[in-house]
Amino acid sequence: MKNMSTSEEQTQPASRTRRILVAYFSWSGNTREIANQIHKIVGGNLFEIVSVDKYPSDYDETVKQARKELETGCRPQLVSEVEDIESYDVVFIGYPNWCYTIPAPVASFLSKCDSTEKTIAPFCTHGGDRLGESVEDIAKLCQHSLVLEGLAVRGSEVRNAQSKVSEWLRKIGVAE
Fold this sequence. Notes:
Blueprint (H helix, E strand, L loop, with lengths): L6 H4 L9 E5 L5 H13 L2 E4 L10 H14 L17 E7 L7 H9 L6 E8 L7 H8 L4 E2 L3 E4 L7 H10 L5
Parallel strand pairs: 1-2, 1-3, 3-4, 4-5, 4-6
Protein backbone atom coordinates (compact mmCIF):
# COMPACT_ATOMS: atom_id res chain seq x y z
CA MET A 1 0.00 0.00 0.00
CA LYS A 2 1.34 3.45 -0.70
CA ASN A 3 0.87 6.72 1.10
CA MET A 4 -1.89 8.78 -0.43
CA SER A 5 -2.08 12.50 -0.32
CA THR A 6 -4.84 13.73 -2.62
CA SER A 7 -8.27 14.26 -1.13
CA GLU A 8 -9.85 12.03 -3.80
CA GLU A 9 -7.79 9.05 -2.69
CA GLN A 10 -8.37 9.79 0.98
CA THR A 11 -12.12 9.50 0.89
CA GLN A 12 -12.18 5.73 0.49
CA PRO A 13 -14.69 4.55 3.08
CA ALA A 14 -13.56 2.22 5.83
CA SER A 15 -15.50 -1.00 6.13
CA ARG A 16 -17.69 -1.37 9.20
CA THR A 17 -15.98 -4.72 9.83
CA ARG A 18 -12.56 -3.17 10.29
CA ARG A 19 -10.85 -3.23 13.69
CA ILE A 20 -10.01 0.25 14.90
CA LEU A 21 -7.33 1.45 17.31
CA VAL A 22 -7.26 5.01 18.62
CA ALA A 23 -3.70 5.49 19.92
CA TYR A 24 -2.61 8.83 21.33
CA PHE A 25 0.07 10.65 23.28
CA SER A 26 -1.13 13.55 25.41
CA TRP A 27 0.94 15.90 27.55
CA SER A 28 -1.71 18.39 28.69
CA GLY A 29 -4.88 16.35 28.17
CA ASN A 30 -5.94 18.10 24.94
CA THR A 31 -5.04 15.21 22.66
CA ARG A 32 -6.71 12.76 25.06
CA GLU A 33 -9.92 14.79 24.71
CA ILE A 34 -9.85 14.54 20.90
CA ALA A 35 -9.00 10.81 21.10
CA ASN A 36 -12.05 10.29 23.31
CA GLN A 37 -14.25 12.21 20.86
CA ILE A 38 -13.02 10.04 17.98
CA HIS A 39 -13.45 6.86 20.02
CA LYS A 40 -17.02 7.82 20.92
CA ILE A 41 -17.90 8.04 17.20
CA VAL A 42 -15.90 5.19 15.63
CA GLY A 43 -15.52 2.77 18.54
CA GLY A 44 -12.59 0.39 18.60
CA ASN A 45 -9.93 0.35 21.29
CA LEU A 46 -8.19 3.27 23.01
CA PHE A 47 -4.47 3.13 23.76
CA GLU A 48 -2.47 5.86 25.49
CA ILE A 49 1.17 6.12 24.44
CA VAL A 50 3.18 6.78 27.60
CA SER A 51 6.92 7.33 27.83
CA VAL A 52 8.76 5.61 30.70
CA ASP A 53 10.51 8.91 31.41
CA LYS A 54 7.92 11.56 32.25
CA TYR A 55 7.98 15.00 30.67
CA PRO A 56 8.34 18.07 32.89
CA SER A 57 5.12 19.74 34.00
CA ASP A 58 6.55 23.11 32.91
CA TYR A 59 5.68 23.91 29.28
CA ASP A 60 9.00 25.63 28.43
CA GLU A 61 11.00 22.75 29.90
CA THR A 62 8.92 20.28 27.91
CA VAL A 63 9.56 22.22 24.69
CA LYS A 64 13.32 22.14 25.42
CA GLN A 65 13.21 18.40 25.97
CA ALA A 66 11.10 17.85 22.83
CA ARG A 67 13.60 19.85 20.73
CA LYS A 68 16.51 17.88 22.12
CA GLU A 69 14.74 14.58 21.38
CA LEU A 70 13.99 15.70 17.84
CA GLU A 71 17.57 16.84 17.21
CA THR A 72 19.04 13.58 18.51
CA GLY A 73 16.46 11.25 16.94
CA CYS A 74 15.53 9.97 20.39
CA ARG A 75 13.07 7.08 20.59
CA PRO A 76 12.10 6.88 24.27
CA GLN A 77 11.10 3.62 25.86
CA LEU A 78 7.34 3.25 26.27
CA VAL A 79 5.49 1.94 29.32
CA SER A 80 3.55 -0.58 27.22
CA GLU A 81 2.88 -1.69 23.67
CA VAL A 82 -0.30 -2.63 21.84
CA GLU A 83 -0.86 -6.35 21.95
CA ASP A 84 -1.88 -7.91 18.66
CA ILE A 85 -1.26 -4.73 16.61
CA GLU A 86 -1.52 -6.79 13.42
CA SER A 87 -5.23 -7.33 14.08
CA TYR A 88 -6.06 -3.64 13.57
CA ASP A 89 -6.93 -2.29 10.15
CA VAL A 90 -7.35 1.39 11.00
CA VAL A 91 -5.03 3.17 13.43
CA PHE A 92 -5.84 6.70 14.53
CA ILE A 93 -2.66 8.28 15.86
CA GLY A 94 -2.98 11.39 18.03
CA TYR A 95 -0.36 13.75 19.39
CA PRO A 96 0.38 17.35 20.26
CA ASN A 97 2.30 19.12 17.49
CA TRP A 98 5.71 19.62 19.05
CA CYS A 99 8.37 21.44 17.01
CA TYR A 100 6.23 21.10 13.84
CA THR A 101 6.12 17.31 14.06
CA ILE A 102 5.24 14.28 16.18
CA PRO A 103 6.64 13.91 19.70
CA ALA A 104 9.38 11.31 20.25
CA PRO A 105 7.05 8.85 22.07
CA VAL A 106 4.80 8.76 18.99
CA ALA A 107 7.83 8.12 16.78
CA SER A 108 8.78 5.27 19.15
CA PHE A 109 5.29 3.82 18.94
CA LEU A 110 5.17 3.98 15.13
CA SER A 111 8.71 2.61 14.79
CA LYS A 112 7.89 -0.42 16.93
CA CYS A 113 4.52 -1.38 15.49
CA ASP A 114 4.06 -3.04 12.14
CA SER A 115 1.83 -0.67 10.21
CA THR A 116 2.04 -2.61 6.94
CA GLU A 117 -1.20 -2.35 4.97
CA LYS A 118 -2.94 -0.38 7.70
CA THR A 119 -4.89 2.83 7.30
CA ILE A 120 -3.33 5.54 9.46
CA ALA A 121 -5.44 8.55 10.43
CA PRO A 122 -3.33 11.26 12.12
CA PHE A 123 -4.82 13.89 14.42
CA CYS A 124 -3.09 16.54 16.47
CA THR A 125 -3.65 19.35 18.88
CA HIS A 126 -1.64 22.50 18.47
CA GLY A 127 -1.04 26.05 19.60
CA GLY A 128 -0.98 27.55 16.11
CA ASP A 129 1.22 25.34 13.94
CA ARG A 130 -1.62 23.05 12.80
CA LEU A 131 -0.21 19.74 11.46
CA GLY A 132 3.23 21.16 10.65
CA GLU A 133 5.25 18.39 8.99
CA SER A 134 3.77 15.65 11.17
CA VAL A 135 1.74 13.85 8.49
CA GLU A 136 4.78 13.67 6.21
CA ASP A 137 6.89 12.38 9.11
CA ILE A 138 4.28 9.74 9.93
CA ALA A 139 4.26 8.69 6.26
CA LYS A 140 8.04 8.19 6.44
CA LEU A 141 7.63 5.88 9.44
CA CYS A 142 4.64 4.05 7.92
CA GLN A 143 5.81 3.58 4.34
CA HIS A 144 3.60 0.58 3.64
CA SER A 145 0.41 2.16 4.95
CA LEU A 146 -2.34 4.37 3.65
CA VAL A 147 -1.85 7.65 5.52
CA LEU A 148 -5.02 9.74 5.43
CA GLU A 149 -5.48 13.48 5.66
CA GLY A 150 -4.86 14.63 9.21
CA LEU A 151 -6.98 16.63 11.61
CA ALA A 152 -5.55 19.60 13.53
CA VAL A 153 -7.42 21.09 16.48
CA ARG A 154 -6.21 24.15 18.35
CA GLY A 155 -5.65 23.26 21.99
CA SER A 156 -7.98 26.00 23.21
CA GLU A 157 -10.82 24.55 21.07
CA VAL A 158 -10.71 20.85 21.98
CA ARG A 159 -13.68 20.90 24.36
CA ASN A 160 -15.95 22.17 21.56
CA ALA A 161 -14.45 20.27 18.63
CA GLN A 162 -17.09 17.54 18.24
CA SER A 163 -18.49 18.89 14.96
CA LYS A 164 -14.99 19.39 13.53
CA VAL A 165 -14.05 15.82 14.54
CA SER A 166 -17.27 14.40 13.05
CA GLU A 167 -16.78 16.32 9.80
CA TRP A 168 -13.18 15.03 9.48
CA LEU A 169 -14.26 11.44 10.15
CA ARG A 170 -16.90 11.71 7.39
CA LYS A 171 -14.39 13.32 5.03
CA ILE A 172 -11.85 10.51 5.44
CA GLY A 173 -14.61 7.90 5.09
CA VAL A 174 -14.52 6.41 8.58
CA ALA A 175 -17.93 7.67 9.80
CA GLU A 176 -21.23 8.59 8.21
